[in-house]
Amino acid sequence: MSSTNGPNFDHGDIAWVLASTALVFIMVPGVGYFYSGMARSKNALSLIMLSVLSVAVVSVQWWLLGFSLAFGSSSSHFIGNLDHAFLRDVDNRTTSMGVTTIPSDVYAIYQCMFAAITPALAIGSAAERGRIIPMIIFIFLWSTLVYDVIACWTWNPDGWASKIGVLDYAGGTPVHIASGSAALAYAIVLGKRNGHGTDEFKPHNVANVVLGTSLLWFGWFGFNGGSALAANGRAAMACVVTNLSASVGGLTWCLLDFRLEKKLSALGFCSGAVAGLVSITPGSGYVDYPSAVVFGFLGGFACNMAVRLKHVFNYDDALDVFAVHAVGGFVGNILTGIFANESIIKMIDPTLTGGGWINKNWMQVAYQLSDSVAGELAYYHVDKLVTHTKRTSGNGYDDSVKQSTMM
């Protein structure tokens, strides 16, 4: 953490990052609406409530120690120290992570929104089973023991993945692979929903799914575009490729479903759009427009195929979190190793080098693969965190949240 004078900050960059912070925040209720629409009506309120609670719990955790663990100095290359616990020395007079145009408190609140949405994504797999209080405890512990560690090795200059040259622009591993893997573990530990395999579990409100998708798509411009941490051409390119990948992903999923069911599905389009958004996330600041089409197509295709895994391996991922986020993040990471373009990386600093296979950097995919596999290991930390999570009542309704009042 270094100090600098306020006048050296770029007001345009500050405004863009703060606006992006608000955009990422909007994604949290977007997740809630998306999940609530896919669940049965009696569980909808719980899913929206948990998404909002995730922001509150993680914000407190981020202030206490999360920011310091993720972005403090690290001699281990895995986890930061506690020098910035309670956001000590994080204010409007200092800078962080070598970004000199915005103050460290702006950087901290922006990254806080990333930390908040990640467990909100993961808890969708526990729909109709997990109880509110144990899940709040899980959010706090998982953020500390898993998310902060992965964020440190990915985005902290002292992190091992950062040092070997892994390219992850906006969270393919810390956000999507980690949350998807945690979702799979959570679903397996909690077991299947009551009536799984006999009852019909249909989305109760597709309009909510469309609303949630719209909020997510809108917020993703801040998620990926804001990761430039500046109002510049790279941020603009990130927004364009994000929109393009989401569009192609949605259309791809629709066509795959049409091939089997002979009709277009709003739910299918929404799932595909989110898959496209997830897959472009790690590469959004490194790839050009044609590459974004490949990301959207392969991301939508792979995630659509991955939905079938729960039937093959007989687990109950209620809202397909693993299929969309873990698989989409993995595909995006590997494609970034192929299509990362050195000319785009040099847009901000001509001295930077890198790129993927298209620049004959043949080791980049190996780097991306190592980071992705390490992120998948988040799966193994979750079973211990949810051992004491209670199941719902016999009818599958999470009675820790009443339909009319919050307890």
Automatic annotation (TrEMBL):
This is Ammonium transporter. SUPFAM superfamilies: Ammonium transporter (SSF111352). It is a multi-pass membrane protein. GO terms for cellular component: plasma membrane. GO terms for molecular function: ammonium channel activity. Pfam families: Ammonium_transp (PF00909). Gene3D superfamilies: Ammonium transporter AmtB like domains. InterPro entries: Ammonium/urea_transptr, Ammonium_transpt, Ammonium_transpt_CS, NH4_transpt_AmtB-like_dom. It is found in: Cell membrane; Membrane. Keywords: Ammonia transport, Membrane, Transmembrane, Transmembrane helix, Transport. The keyword rRNA processing does not apply. The chain crosses the membrane at residues 14-35, 47-65, 107-124, 136-156, 176-193, 205-223, 235-256, 263-283, 319-340. Residues 15-369 form the Ammonium transporter AmtB-like domain. It comes from Dentiscutata erythropus. Belongs to the ammonia transporter channel (TC 1.A.11.2) family. Its main location: membrane. The lineage of its organism: Eukaryota, Fungi, Fungi incertae sedis, Mucoromycota, Glomeromycotina. It comes from the Eukaryota.
